Amino acid sequence: METISNKLKHQNGEPVEINIKGKKIGRDHFTFIAGPCTIENYEDLLKIVKHLQKMGINFFRGGAYKMRTSPYNFKGLGKTGLEFIKKVADETGMISVSEIVSVEDVDEMSEYVDILQVGTRNMHNYRLLWKLGKVDNPIILKRGMSSTIEEWLLAAEHVIEAGNSQVILCERGIRTFENFTRHTLDISAIPAVKSLSNLPIIVDPSHSSGRREMIKSLSWAAMAAGADGLLIETHFSPDNTICDSEQTINFKILSEILEKKEELLGLWEKK
Ligand code: PEP
Ligand code: MN
């Protein structure tokens, strides 16, 4: 019988563990990644990242190139944003995550950012995935909003087959008939990926729900379901952000999420 795993050449065997700047991402370690949707200026980014660091978080996110649905919305600071990311990462020792949107940016961006994220709109951009197979940076591969688990795992296979085995899968919600939430978080993708693939699987409750008041429960649900990490849009003043305000949480909510860490990760013997 043909199954998804028959189609995967690389995603069997020992779970993949990614080591970056002395920190690990994988089945045994839970990874919190937090930060703004988009980088607006250097001072605010530094302030956010220092706060995350105080909370014991080692990874920060921030978009420099934004894939906005409307062409009239802010598209990010571009190269200047990359410079801010690098400066903040160098100053704090924190590990950076930012979205790569185009093949032509790969060489430059791989020098400025620690972990390159492929967004939902680019999951099927196979030429981008091949090029990311040639860099040393770990890759976060978000699930296409209309993609099946099989298509997503095969997209990861494109990166690995091209030479980069450091892929982290990110469930970020899929399109369904429901429109109360921005997308529908597919919690079942977590155990599915864990049974089909040896790659780490993290969850983005921000883009999946689009609703700030849901981030805590969805984060706890992801932790309880066995996810290997969370990617959460966080800002000290969520209402005043240019992009994705309504789904961005403040540090208070983030610390409430962290409070249940031991209890929920204990279910999976994760640290
Ligand atoms: C993001 O994480 O900044 C983002 C745009 O996410 P997605 O590609 O999942 O929409
Ligand atoms: Mn966003």
Question: What is the topological layout?
Answer:
Elements: E1 18-20, E2 23-25, E3 31-35, H1 42-54, E4 59-61, H2 79-92, E5 95-100, H3 106-112, E6 115-118, H4 126-132, E7 139-142, H5 149-161, E8 167-171, H6 189-196, E9 201-203, H7 205-209, H8 215-224, E10 229-233, H9 251-259, H10 261-266
Parallel strand pairs: 3-4, 3-10, 4-5, 5-6, 6-7, 7-8, 8-9, 9-10
Antiparallel strand pairs: 1-2
Helix pairs in contact: 1-2, 4-5, 8-9
Bound molecules: phosphoenolpyruvate and manganese (II) ion (MN).
User: Quick one: overall form?
Assistant: globular
Uncertain runs are none
What is the CATH domain class? Alpha Beta
Strand content: 15-25%
Structure report:
With 271 residues, the chain is an alpha/beta fold. The protein has one domain (21-265): TIM Barrel (Alpha-Beta Barrel). The protein has helices at residues 42-54, 79-92, 106-112, 126-132, 149-161, 189-196, 205-209, 215-224, 251-259, 261-266, and strands at 18-20, 23-25, 31-35, 59-61, 95-100, 115-118, 139-142, 167-171, 201-203, 229-233. The strands form two sheets. It has an eight-stranded parallel β-barrel, surrounded by six helices. A two-stranded antiparallel ribbon has the order 1-2. It is globular and about 55 Å long. The model has no long low-confidence stretch (mean pLDDT 97). The structure holds phosphoenolpyruvate (PEP) and manganese (II) ion (MN).
Task: Describe the structure concisely.
The chain is 34% helix and 15% strand. The chain is built from ten helices and ten strands. It starts with 17 loop residues before the first strand and ends in a 5-residue tail after the last helix.
